[in-house]
């Protein structure tokens, strides 16, 4: 086989097929013939060694693609399926490369590799794979959402048939898509993906959209279905992502329904996850934050305080501090709440964290009724911008009640707003990855339920 592959090799001075940017003669020319990649190789070693082998594998795979697949595709009408195998294999190698680039400390060179490999397979599905990695890199490694959108701007989502690319698309445009588009895209992901955990994720995301649209009965039904379908999968077949999504889905539905049993179940599941895994500190901090919030919702404030503090000790996050401040208010310690909030720098917070921060500041003002707190809260809440009608109403009622308080030292609205706040759910779109602003539709929903 290797003899025929040799005909397809690049020239020695040309860039290597592996995407390193090195000349072929200095890179993989002497490497790929050392291995028999048609057999399963079990590799171990340092990341640098593994990357070298992966590069040789990519080069070999591209040579095979040129030698075997391309001639077949030319002569065959069933080419989609044949190409599909190559695209899937190469996509997996891209993902491995991303991981190894990270481990080798050269992750910033990864986009260069993507550009070198962009023409490896002449098919739109390969272009999607490359764009997916590129946008993902910008979103999750460079934290540059605008750059991710620039990568995606060449596509209309309607013409994308790759679940991975659509998932990145949803993430990048989370703040800009109308609910109906989010539902359509998420439905497409569910249709295209083989991953049960992704199906759970996007089924739940759809239910959240219906909550935001005030179609609450439908939303509840969809949320329950999403959970039931996933729970039907034997525990041994569930992966870490799916188990985590299940925890969050149960917690959030428990939150919406005010269902104590669900919240307790979420606590139990989250603690079981934390106990069983080798977690990175950020994920661990997130998990304890989630457990803390469950206790907070159950009005077990001391437990909530303890777990928020544990989360902050592992890895500080402005959102957790905001919630730690909120629980101080619930424990009737407004001064301590203010101390915590004063220690945060609101100007560098994300939009959704700032929203939470401003709302808790309003909460402080409504508790203390001090003019300086009221003025500060008003200043902050006026800076919050939102397109969502629900939040516009919420902000408006805050402003009105704070002005009331300024004039008369009492506010008719204050108590009802405080009640709403106590049900208030995080706006932070992405702690667990539902990718949406999940919020206080809940009060409306609960009051509607209560009327029945
Ligand atoms: Zn190479």
UniProtKB/TrEMBL annotation:
Q: By its UniProt entry, which InterPro entries does this protein fall under?
A: SEC_C_motif (IPR004027), TPR-like_helical_dom_sf (IPR011990), TPR_rpt (IPR019734)
Taxonomically, which superkingdom?
Answer: Bacteria
Q: What is this protein called?
A: Tetratricopeptide repeat protein
Ranges of the TPR repeats in the UniProt entry = 285-318
Signal peptide range equals none
Query: Which keywords label this protein?
Result: TPR repeat
């Amino acid at each position: 086989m290797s003899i025929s592959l040799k005909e397809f090799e690049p020239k020695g001075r040309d860039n290597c097929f592996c995407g390193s940017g090195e000349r072929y003669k200095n890179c993989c020319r002497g490497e790929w013939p050392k291995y028999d990649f048609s057999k399963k190789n079990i590799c171990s070693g340092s990341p640098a060694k593994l990357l070298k082998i992966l590069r040789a594998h990519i080069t070999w795979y591209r040579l095979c693609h040129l030698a075997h697949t391309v001639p077949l595709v030319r002569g065959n009408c069933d080419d989609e399926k044949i190409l599909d195998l190559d695209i899937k294999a190469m996509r997996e190698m891209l993902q491995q490369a991303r991981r190894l680039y990270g481990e080798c400390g050269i992750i910033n060179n990864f986009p260069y590799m993507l550009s070198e490999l962009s023409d490896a397979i002449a098919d739109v599905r390969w272009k999607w794979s490359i764009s997916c990695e590129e946008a993902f890199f910008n979103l999750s490694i460079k934290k540059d959402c605008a750059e991710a959108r620039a990568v995606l701007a060449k596509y209309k989502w309607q013409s994308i048939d790759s679940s991975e690319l659509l998932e990145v698309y949803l993430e990048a445009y989370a703040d800009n898509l109308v609910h109906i588009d989010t539902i359509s895209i998420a439905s497409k992901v569910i249709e295209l993906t083989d991953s049960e955990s992704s199906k759970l994720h996007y089924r739940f995301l759809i239910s959240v959209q219906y909550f935001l649209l005030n179609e609450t009965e439908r939303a509840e039904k969809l949320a329950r279905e999403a959970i039931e379908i996933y729970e039907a999968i034997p525990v041994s077949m569930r992966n870490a992502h799916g188990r985590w999504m299940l925890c969050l889905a149960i917690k959030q539905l428990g939150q919406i329904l005010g269902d104590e049993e669900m919240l307790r179940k979420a606590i139990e599941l989250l603690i079981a996850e934390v106990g069983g895994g080798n977690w990175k500190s950020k994920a661990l901090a997130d998990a304890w934050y989630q457990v803390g919030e469950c206790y907070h919702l159950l009005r077990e404030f001391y437990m909530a305080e303890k777990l928020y503090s544990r989360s902050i000790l592992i890895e500080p996050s402005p959102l957790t501090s905001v919630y730690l401040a909120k629980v101080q208010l619930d424990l009737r310690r407004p001064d301590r709440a203010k101390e915590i909030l004063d220690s945060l720098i609101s100007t560098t917070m994300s939009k959704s964290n700032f929203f939470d921060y401003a709302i808790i500041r309003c909460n402080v003002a409504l508790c203390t009724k001090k003019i300086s707190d009221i003025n500060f809260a008003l200043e902050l809440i006026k800076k919050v911008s939102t397109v969502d009608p629900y939040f516009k109403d919420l902000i408006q009622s805050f402003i009105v009640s704070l002005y009331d308080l300024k004039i008369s030292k009492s506010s008719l609205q204050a108590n009802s707003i405080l009640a709403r706040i106590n049900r208030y759910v995080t706006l932070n779109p992405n702690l667990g990855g539902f990718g949406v602003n999940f919020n206080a539709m809940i009060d409306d929903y609960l009051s509607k339920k209560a009327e029945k």
